[in-house]
Write a structure and sequence with these properties.
2 domains; rod-shaped; binds zinc ion
């Protein structure tokens, strides 16, 4: 069991070799027959990373920050369009701000 507050993620199938077709997240090498504690023979990425799934919590933090920046930009754009629409409707009805 992990210590409280530990940021270390558990490696699925620890101690057992991989008996299914799982591709490396970085180079798409088939990791079947390797141990989760090992590294991809093609690119050196830890095998356990490819077993974690596609959830954002397992993604590279720099990439998640780029996604967050894009979402903030989209929300900022939506807010400004809404603000313009309110201003435009009020101007049409003769209620200047
Ligand atoms: Zn690889």
């Amino acid at each position: 069991m992990d210590a409280p507050g530990s940021t270390e993620l558990p490696v699925p199938y620890a101690g057992q070799f991989i008996d299914a077709d799982v591709v490396c997240r970085c180079c798409s090498y088939n990791l079947r027959g390797l141990y989760p504690e090992g590294r991809c023979p093609e690119c050196g990425t830890p095998v356990g990373i490819s077993l974690q799934g596609d959830l954002l919590r397992f993604a590279e933090p720099a990439w998640v920050e780029i996604l967050a920046r894009g979402i903030r930009f989209i929300l900022w754009g939506i807010a400004h369009v809404c603000q313009f629409e309110v201003w435009y409707v009020l101007e049409l009805r003769g209620y200047p701000l």
